[in-house]
Design goal:
The structure is a homodimer of 393-residue chains. Chain A is of the alpha/beta class and 393 residues long. Chain A folds into two domains: 285 residues, TIM Barrel, CATH 3.20.20.105; 106 residues, no CATH class. Chain A is built from 17 helices and 16 strands. Chain A has an eight-stranded parallel β-sheet with strand order 4-14-13-12-11-10-6-5. Chain A has a three-stranded antiparallel β-sheet with strand order 1-2-3. The interface between A and B is medium-sized, with 35 and 35 residues.
């Protein structure tokens, strides 16, 4: 880690913190194969980013996360600003050193958690005030502060602050939030430039909003596309709307986004949604789903999700997924995992988390290989033929 | 694992499953340095055995347990017989294969948990009947059944069934339980012989009882010493009595035990008690203490226990224990562990468990080196000078 951090320190200030190269595009479709280069490492795209909400991917050691194939993880600005806080992270030598993860970290802007988790969130043009869900203490987040925090603890990719609204919402509410997000994006870009975040190694992404209104989505995509950012994110989706509507919004948005910048669909991570997103031109995904499902005993397999607590696994002395090379499948049986879950043993949560993350990483490997072989369409069809989603509409 | 299991299968039936060699004895004292050889591996003694109650050392992967230096672990017959049960363990290819631990496993006899955890335990000379703490289902355990179970799932060391009484208890109650334990021991030895447990790779240990009554303890030690067992255990101590009384009982018991068989003090595992036990001739220890304390955020350090949730660690950007080579101390800071505990993150429980087990393993390494160098007394004194026990009387 020391060496890599030094290398980063010594990198010429003039080099952009993020370089994105498009390596292949699926013939006739939007699916793209790329490489995203950051000072702390390269990421082959499309890629899925595991979520380490509170500076740890739940239940896992950073070495285990890396062993699943993850090359970038996400952490949450809302959580980190409250606990342990910027000062502690700075004193620790940055977020990476604090949590023992040497590869890139993307931090979200805090917006989503403020509107979903914090208490008494109040939005003004200046920014958001809210109370901590931990101890009720009052806090404020402005676009500038969101950038300060993320640069301060050393994020490789920082997200601009956005204003999220729950769906369904009236057109006027959606429009108001999207326009505020645009004004905040401009302030984030200015702050990022003022602090010379790029030389410090932090790239900035913008987020487009617009709910389920095609014209607002298109307008928002154009604003983000025109901004001086290193990548473009699609926010405010995967919040409970039907999957067809999410897909329809992506079809409106991605054609507006610059071809040469990475595109990130926030909060998406079911096996079927990853294929759907890539098909519509998305390069990056994140979601707590694989690790949260794992802790509930729901495991991805090629045929669909299984519930490991179900009695049918109690005598299954074979791996959960015979095709999988993860530690859970290489070393342990479904019967053992069933036992661990029945006995409420932490090792069960760990092995299930390792498996679900490895499952998604292997899925992304298969997606990348399919794009390279110009066979994305048939690979997607084969996946859909085989995998039975749960909760899909 | 496959290879080692085959080796075991092919081992000549005439070879004892356990060989114990005394390598050194501390001049003037009882402390012994030995080597315990089992088909699945050798154990340098004195040794501490981490506890994997339900076929997993809580929160840890078997590789992590091994990396702490553990060369044998303990599992609980009471828990395993209820869940997952003998049949599942047999179908899995044995306990080792089920839980992914390839080195030796000692299983206790179930007595302690039946009397401390199960409901409606009722003792007759035939055996014990009780109800499961999980679902209230009725069960019975006899000396024969205890041996059948432990041989059945492939324990390397099986413990004879004993009758434990809580302390304080009247002399008559203690005597009655000790005498029943002796009758049960004889039946366990007979059953172990009948099943040819030794050729199957399972060694049998006897357990002496006798509460805090010196003469009953001495008598019980003599009965166990005279039995055809591979090792002798001291049970019924460390159940809340003052530490001086435990020490006094050991001073009565160990002189009665055969010099050439390993001696195991059950349920003991605080740093200070390990020195105390070795000093009185004990070779093996087990206890849930290091892992249970760890999950409560209490960590062993050379100066004594610390509470990692305490605010004083929030800005300590150094390892918990600068002298420790465990993963928690090599890769992470006290500030990060503090954060993980405050944020209720599982990785905190894991790192703390790794650290406490490694701390005890290193302590046992130091004890063995001290005996070899004929410097046990001064090493014990140096430890006591430095280490401040918590809860010591």
């Amino acid at each position: 880690m020391e060496r890599e951090m030094e290398e980063r320190m010594n990198a010429p200030a003039s080099i952009a913190p993020l370089r994105f190269a498009l390596l292949a595009e699926a013939g006739g479709g939007q699916a793209r194969r790329g490489e995203l280069r950051l000072a702390r490492g390269a990421i082959q795209t499309p890629a899925f980013m595991p979520v380490g909400t509170q500076a740890t991917v739940k239940t896992l050691h950073p070495d285990e996360v890396e062993a699943t194939g993850a090359r970038i993880i996400l952490a949450n600005t809302y959580h980190l600003m409250l606990r342990p806080g910027l000062e502690t992270l700075r004193d620790a030598g940055g977020l990476h050193r604090f949590m023992g993860w040497r590869r890139p970290i993307l931090t979200d802007c805090g917006g989503f958690q403020i509107f979903s988790l914090a208490q008494h969130a109040r939005v003004r043009d200046e920014g958001v005030t809210f109370r901590s869900h931990i101890d009720g203490s009052p806090h404020a987040l402005t676009p500038e502060r969101a950038v300060d925090l993320q640069i301060g603890w050393g994020s490789d990719i920082a997200m601009a602050l956005d204003h999220l609204v729950g769906l369904p919402a009236s057109r006027e509410v959606v429009r108001d939030a999207a326009e505020r997000s645009h004004r905040w994006l401009a302030r984030c870009v200015a702050r990022h430039r003022e602090l010379d975040g790029a030389s410090g190694g932090t790239a900035l992404f913008g987020i487009c909003q617009g709910g389920l209104e095609p014209d607002l989505r298109r307008d928002s995509a154009r604003v983000v596309a025109a901004a001086d950012v290193a990548g473009c994110a699609v926010g405010g989706l995967s919040v409970g709307e039907p999957k067809e509507e999410m897909a329809a919004m992506l079809e409106v948005v991605t054609p507006e986004l610059p071809r040469d910048k990475p595109r990130y669909l926030m909060g998406v991570g079911s096996p079927e949604d990853l294929w759907m997103g890539v098909e519509r031109g998305i390069d990056l995904f994140d979601c707590v789903l694989p690790t949260r499902l794992a802790r509930n005993g729901a495991l991805f397999t090629p045929g669909g999700r299984i519930a490991i607590r179900n009695r049918r696994w109690s005598q299954h002395h074979r791996p959960i997924d015979e095709t999988c090379d993860c530690d859970a499948c290489s070393r342990f049986t479904a019967a053992y995992l069933h036992h661990l879950f029945r006995a409420n043993e932490v090792l069960g949560l760990r092995l299930a988390s390792v498996h679900n993350l490895r499952f998604l990483a292997r899925e992304m490997e298969a997606i990348r290989a399919a794009i390279e072989a110009d066979a994305f369409g048939s690979a997607a069809a084969a996946f859909r033929e085989r995998y039975r989603p749960v909760g899909a509409t």
